[in-house]
Structure formats: structure tokens, C-alpha cells
């Protein structure tokens, strides 16, 4: 690795391997938990972490180098614990590109997970439904994604490649584990919830504004089923360093695709659906964590 000849990109000076090592060592010093599974909780899904026992939690601002969310009232806790005998770590709250963070900082926790020994990453997010069959409250198992900011050079792996994490040109054709997707669909059907669990393509936009109608139509033409402002950078960095990925997106609103028929999003309904589904999501994620060990990679 030639550290002297670094291209002056946004990402290149964000974090060195020593920064990752320091944060990892700090955490290893503070906790005896050695997680194999990490979960990133999207907006309003922080209660996924309530399922853990032997809970030990750290505020982001107390962890060296850890990115701290600028959104008021946004949770920011790293929660270690166990579900059955599976050791896991939950991120309650994340930072976004639209907050002004470089993608290197946004994805910093993922590399910490790698150095902590995590093998499986579960990402969750709230998103807008593009697919016309989707209803508010549906849960989409992420089958694939479109990295729209990445097309424009906003990519977490831009800059010098650190071979200690992964190769220069990582393969992304199998980013979302087929085994875990199948397992999630099996669990959903065992729980009798197949009618609101879908499988589809997630598209990331940078935000912070919501899509115009023309943009939403473009996304539909491109094959996107849901659109959100997160998740893809973390998934890309996880795949790069060999972490198995599973993703879920909660459809909190329908994206308007029609000028004459403005979708009337009832915010109270959205919140209510979110709350109702959060319980199902918690059960689904907990069961997935318990059973994912038995799946071959
Ligand atoms: C971790 O603990 C070791 C041994 O007590 C100490 O030398 C080291 O400085 C600690 N590292 C961090 C990052 O806290
Ligand atoms: C936590 C998180 O990433 N939430 C985002 C998920 O996507 C929705 C819809 O685009 C955003 O509004 C959230 O900020």
C-alpha cells in the first residue's frame, strides 16, 4: 500500500487503518461481547435492539472516531448483547450522506464490525414505495440495489484501496445473501405474514429532498421498487470486506408517480404502521439472527 501517493479525494484522508484499529481496540477493551452479527437500525426501527439480553450500550459520542448523527432526537447508541446464544451488536441510528458526512465516515462502523469479527450484517431502512403493488407498511426484503450516488462518483470505496479490507474492484452481483433472503421469506411465511413481505430492488438517492414526480418515474423505469437515502454505502463496504449482507426496507409511504393523482400520505397512518410493523420486524430479525448460523455462506 502506497500511502504517500494519495489522490486528493473526499474519502482518502477520512480514516486510516490506525483509526479503525484504535476504535476496535477501544471497544474490545470495554466489552467482552464478541459479536458475529451486526444490525443497522433505520429511522424508527431502533427498538429492534430491545430483543437483546446481557445488554451493554455505548453512546456514539463516547466511542473514539465514531460518526455522530446531526439529526436532533436521532438515536445514537451502539448496543451489544445476545439473542439466545448468538452474540450481536446493534447500531441504533446512523449518519447519512445528506448530513454532510463523507461516505467513508458513513461506512466507518461497518469496518469496525469487520475488525470485531462480525460475519453477517443486517441493514434496515424506511423507504418510499415506487412499485405500484406496494402498500404502506409492506416490508421489502432487499434483493438488489441501484447505487445512484455511486454513478456520480459519490462512492465509499473511491480513493486508495486498502487491501487489508478487500480488493480494488469488488464484485457486487451477489451483494444480498440468497440464503438469508430465502430464510427471511421462510420465517415470514411461518409467521403468517407473507402477504405484506415482498422482495425487490432498493435505490439510493442522496437526499435530503424527496423525489420529484419526474425523478420518481425515472426510478420506476430503471427498475427500482423502493427508494431511500441510506443503506447502499454500508452494504457496499460490507461486501468489499467479505461480510455477508441481508437487508430489509419498511415502506413508509408511496412515492407519487402521477401529476394529477397526488398521493395523500397520512403521516399518522405511517407512524402507526411503522409501530405495528416494528414488532414484526423485531421478531423477524431476532429469528433470522438465531437461525442464520445454520445457513451456509
Ligand atoms: C486497551 O487496553 C490496553 C491494556 O489495558 C491498553 O494498553 C490500551 O491503551 C487500551 N486501548 C484503548 C484504545 O483504549
Ligand atoms: C435511517 C435512514 O436511513 N432513514 C432514511 C431511510 O429512507 C427514508 C426515505 O428516503 C429517509 O427519509 C430516511 O432518512
TrEMBL record:
Pfam families: PNP_UDP_1 (PF01048)
UniProt entry keywords in alphabetical sequence: Glycosyltransferase, Purine salvage, Transferase
InterPro entries: Nucleoside_phosphorylase_d (IPR000845), Nucleoside_phosphorylase_sf (IPR035994), Pur_Nuc_Pase_Ino/Guo-sp (IPR011270), Purine_phosphorylase (IPR011268)
Reactions catalysed: 2'-deoxyinosine + phosphate = 2-deoxy-alpha-D-ribose 1-phosphate + hypoxanthine; guanosine + phosphate = alpha-D-ribose 1-phosphate + guanine; 2'-deoxyguanosine + phosphate = 2-deoxy-alpha-D-ribose 1-phosphate + guanine; inosine + phosphate = alpha-D-ribose 1-phosphate + hypoxanthine
SUPFAM superfamilies the UniProt entry points to: Purine and uridine phosphorylases (SSF53167)
Gene3D superfamilies (UniProt xref): Nucleoside phosphorylase domain
Top-level EC class as recorded in UniProt: transferase
Occurrences of domain Nucleoside phosphorylase (ranges): 36-289
GO BP terms: purine ribonucleoside salvage
Binding residue positions for a purine D-ribonucleoside: 211, 253
GO CC term (a single one): cytoplasm
GO molecular function, one term: purine-nucleoside phosphorylase activity
Enzyme Commission number, as recorded: 2.4.2.1
The protein's annotated pathway: Purine metabolism; purine nucleoside salvage
Positions contributing to phosphate binding: 43, 74, 94-96, 126, 230
Function: Catalyzes the phosphorolytic breakdown of the N-glycosidic bond in the beta-(deoxy)ribonucleoside molecules, with the formation of the corresponding free purine bases and pentose-1-phosphate. Preferentially acts on 6-oxopurine nucleosides including inosine and guanosine.
Family annotation (NCBIfam families): PNPH, PNPH-PUNA-XAPA, PRK08202.1
Annotated family: Belongs to the PNP/MTAP phosphorylase family.
Name of the featured protein: Purine nucleoside phosphorylase
Species in which this protein is naturally found: Gadus morhua
Amino acid at each position: 500500500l502506497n500511502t504517500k501517493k494519495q489522490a486528493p479525494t473526499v474519502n482518502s484522508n477520512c480514516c486510516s487503518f490506525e483509526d479503525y484499529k484504535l476504535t476496535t481496540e477501544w471497544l474490545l477493551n470495554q466489552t467482552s461481547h464478541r459479536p458475529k452479527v451486526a444490525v443497522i437500525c433505520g429511522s424508527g426501527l431502533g427498538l429492534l435492539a430491545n430483543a437483546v439480553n446481557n445488554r451493554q450500550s455505548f453512546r456514539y459520542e463516547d466511542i473514539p472516531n465514531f460518526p455522530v448523527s446531526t439529526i436532533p432526537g436521532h438515536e445514537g447508541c451502539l448496543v451489544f448483547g445476545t439473542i439466545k446464544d448468538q452474540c450481536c451488536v446493534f447500531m441504533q441510528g446512523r449518519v447519512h450522506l445528506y448530513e454532510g458526512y463523507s461516505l467513508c465516515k458513513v461506512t466507518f462502523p461497518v469496518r469496525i464490525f469487520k475488525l470485531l469479527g462480525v460475519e453477517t450484517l443486517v441493514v434496515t431502512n424506511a423507504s418510499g414505495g415506487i412499485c405500484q403493488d406496494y402498500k404502506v407498511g409492506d416490508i421489502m426484503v432487499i434483493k438488489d440495489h441501484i447505487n445512484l450516488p455511486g454513478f456520480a462518483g459519490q462512492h465509499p470505496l473511491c480513493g486508495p484501496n486498502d487491501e487489508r479490507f478487500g480488493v480494488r474492484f469488488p464484485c457486487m452481483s451477489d451483494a444480498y445473501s440468497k440464503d438469508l433472503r430465502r430464510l427471511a421469506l421462510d420465517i415470514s411465511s411461518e409467521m403468517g405474514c407473507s402477504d405484506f413481505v415482498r422482495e425487490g430492488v432498493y435505490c439510493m438517492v442522496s437526499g435530503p429532498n424527496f423525489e420529484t414526480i419526474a425523478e420518481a418515474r425515472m426510478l420506476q423505469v430503471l427498475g427500482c421498487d423502493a427508494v431511500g437515502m441510506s443503506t447502499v454505502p454500508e452494504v457496499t463496504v460490507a461486501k468489499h470486506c467479505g461480510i455477508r449482507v441481508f437487508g430489509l426496507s419498511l415502506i413508509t409511504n408511496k412515492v407519487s408517480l402521477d401529476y394529477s393523482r397526488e398521493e395523500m400520505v397520512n403521516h399518522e397512518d405511517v407512524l402507526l404502521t411503522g409501530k405495528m410493523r416494528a414488532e414484526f420486524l423485531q421478531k423477524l430479525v431476532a429469528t433470522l439472527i438465531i437461525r442464520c448460523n445454520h445457513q451456509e455462506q
